[in-house]
Amino acid sequence: MIAKAALLEAIAGKNRGLLATEQDKKAILVTIANLEDFNPTPRPLEASDLLDGNWRLLYTTSKALLNLDRFPLCKLGEIYQCIRVQTNSVYNIAEIYGLPLLEGIVSVAAKFEPVSERRVQVKFERLIIGLQRLISYKSSTTFIQQIEAGQKFTAVDFPLNSNEQQGWLDITYLDSDLRIGRGNEGSVFVLAKA
After folding, report:
1. Tens of pLDDT along the chain (194 residues)?
2. How many CA atoms lie within 13 A of 124 on its CB side?
3. DSSP state letter for 159
4. How far apart are the first and last CA of the chain?
5. Alpha carbon distances (Å) from 48 to 60, 87, 126, 147, 150
6. Chain centroid to CA 194
């Protein structure tokens, strides 16, 4: 599809948005809107087989995520959003790299509730910030299994008040390997199936 190829080309080399200029951002938003017009899955929340799984962030305008790269001596690694439709769970995981042995992880666990054909209400429940080696981080999948098993980590690990920490997300494009979402703070997210 031409619109999908145009978006992937527009975000290539932009390091998830960290290297995007204001002009780049405007052009990328236009290509995102063009692709959304061709959404093959108008009711994405009914397509659990497509929605479920691990997604890797390709591009975002979210300042909260992009600011993770601003810590001294640290660089933002991969960012994943892992959706478990069966349990209405979502896990956001950002890998942080820097000095040897100080690689970190910032993760938020949340529950989501469908409120329309394409919108979910998200309630954030748990925040985990720690060193990858201290929490035995190997991959997003094994980390999620540890969270779901109720494991406490040698890290900053505490519950969040889900009544205060919540938002919504519209899934505006979904196919077998690409997903676009727009959040309540005006942020856009482009993710590829991991």
Report:
1. 899 999 999 999 999 999 999 999 999 999 999 999 999 999 999 999 999 999 999 999 999 888 888 777 788 999 999 999 999 999 999 999 987 878 999 999 999 999 999 999 999 999 999 999 999 999 999 999 999 998 989 889 988 886 777 899 999 999 999 999 999 999 999 999 99
2. 15
3. E
4. 20
5. 23, 12, 24, 22, 25
6. 11
Q: Which helix (H) or strand (E) holds 63?
A: helix 63-66
**CB within 8 Å of 183: residues ≥ 6 apart:** 62, 167, 168, 169, 170, 189
User: What is the rounded (10 degree) CA torsion for 7, 9, 14, 20?
Assistant: -60
Q: What residues contact residue 143 under an 8 Å CB cut-off, 6+ apart?
A: 91, 93, 105, 107, 135, 137
Q: The whole model's pTM is what?
A: 0.92
The answer to whether the CB of 93 falls within 8 A of the CB of 105 is yes
